[in-house]
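#lab-general

N.A. 3:47 PM
ok so I finally got the sequence cleaned up, no stray characters, all 68 residues accounted for. can someone with queue access submit it? mine expired

B.Y. 3:52 PM
send it over

N.A. 3:53 PM
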Amino acid sequence: MNDPAWTALCYLLARARARVAAARSGHPEAGAVTLEWIVIAGILVAAALAAGVLFNNAVSKFASKLGG
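B.Y. 4:20 PM
back already:
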């Protein structure tokens, strides 16, 4: 699939799995770092999806004005 939202979601899940594995490996500070990375990645994915929706709507509106 070449859907950017799907790619972003797969990346987020892969990073989360890697961080959870690191947290389970016995390093006590890894749990907090894992949570921080998951939250930051989630915010970035949500912002990218919102920007994509806004951009798509703006392009569609402009295209309809042009008659396309």
